[in-house]
Amino acid sequence: MSGNFGGPMDDRCIIIGAGHAGSQAAVSLRQEGYAGEIILINDETDIPYHKPPLSKSYLKAPEKGSLVLRPESAYRDNNIEMLFGAHVDAVSIAERTVTLGDGRVLPWSELVFATGARARIPDVPGVALEGVVTLRRMEDARRIAAMMPDVRNVVIIGGGFIGLEMAHSAIALGKKTVLIEAAPRVLGRSVAAPVSAHVEARSRAADITLLTGLGVASIEGENGRAIGVTAGDGTFFPADLVVIGTGAVPNVELAAKAGLSIDNGIRVDEHMRTSAPHVYAIGDCASYAHFHAGRHVRLESVQNATDQAKHFARTIVGRETPYREVAWFWSDQGDMKLQTAGLSFDADRHVLSGEPEENAFSVFSFQGRQAGGGRFHQSPGRSYDCASSACGGDQPKRGRYYGWYAAPQGIAGGCGAIKVLWKRPDLGGGEESVRFLIAEGMGGGETPGDILETEGPRGFIRSQS
């Protein structure tokens, strides 16, 4: 899978990292008409694969189905050269070269960092014991799946998405499962308190021992292998398997050594450009200028990685526009499906619609007059559609994200589409949803009134099971 694709011999784009972002970037370059050489550096020996199933379906049935993102022919037919098991030791911005671990030096005209993120390892005694694992890559999932038949007790440290998904997978496999979260609630940095409370209740109902506001004192071991976890209050929980799920750290060391600007990730502008010319960063490793937050943010999601890769490809061929995609994310936890859109971490107000007791409710998040929303529902026959129109000039566009929500920037800054939505709520997913969201965004009013002053949504949360 190598060679020149009809472009000048000195046109070569090297992509470091072959996860969701790197793989998509390579393919999107060809789709956008890039004619130069493309080299995709993959530090794993597996062809690029879907990562979300690793903590869910793969663990429960590793022999079923394929996780491959796209077949090898997709790279071969697009003349994309992939280097498997290759590691980059150094990047020279001045000389425009990449030095591999085997000593090869590869010149480039454009360079992309798609280096992703790695598990954050807490400073806890015993964390290096055998039987203590993280889950970020296929090799991690294979290791855990191979251990599972002999495991009776699982302790998970961390109540984020991966920790909760792992907990529900372990319970489904018949393992006694304990999850310990140091913060007052699970998913505290990601969702509103009512959603956290519901997830906690449903997890406990599934027989997961879920503890919040409790740290971990140590991981205990015998003969070099973990046998349990001692919590901060002294309680001992036996464990054959200890899963670390305490967040992730962006892989920025290579970029930092090359002299690039770092800001909780490789700092990029709204076109994915780093502080060095002809160098880009995308996906989990990139800290980008967010159009609503008004600051740089770093997101870890398949959608963000994929959309940034496509955006980069358009930029490199000269069709650049500011990155304006709305973040969305999903998480399958047992029989629940949590879905979020937008950013809600700066929200100062949350509005509940529906009944949590019925497993059918929505949580809309607001910051001042900026509105967003979401849904959380279980019953297949009941849902609360959110505002689903994105401003384009003075007319709303129909939403486009998987049908269950449309772009939450639908109530976008200062455009006449808001009045159109009020008059034509069918364009926004239904009268109840869009008018509810608009009214709440205006502080609970019943008419659009000064709706044109709104600056757009902050985010919404949705789940179903």
Automatic annotation (TrEMBL):
Q: Which UniProt keywords apply?
A: FAD, Flavoprotein, Oxidoreductase
Q: What class of enzyme is it?
A: oxidoreductase
GO terms under cellular component: cytoplasm
**GO MF annotations, alphabetized:** oxidoreductase activity, acting on NAD(P)H
The FAD/NAD(P)-binding domain covers which part of the protein? 12-309
Give the matching PANTHER family: APOPTOSIS-INDUCING FACTOR 1, RIESKE DOMAIN-CONTAINING PROTEIN-RELATED
Protein name, as recorded = Rhodocoxin reductase
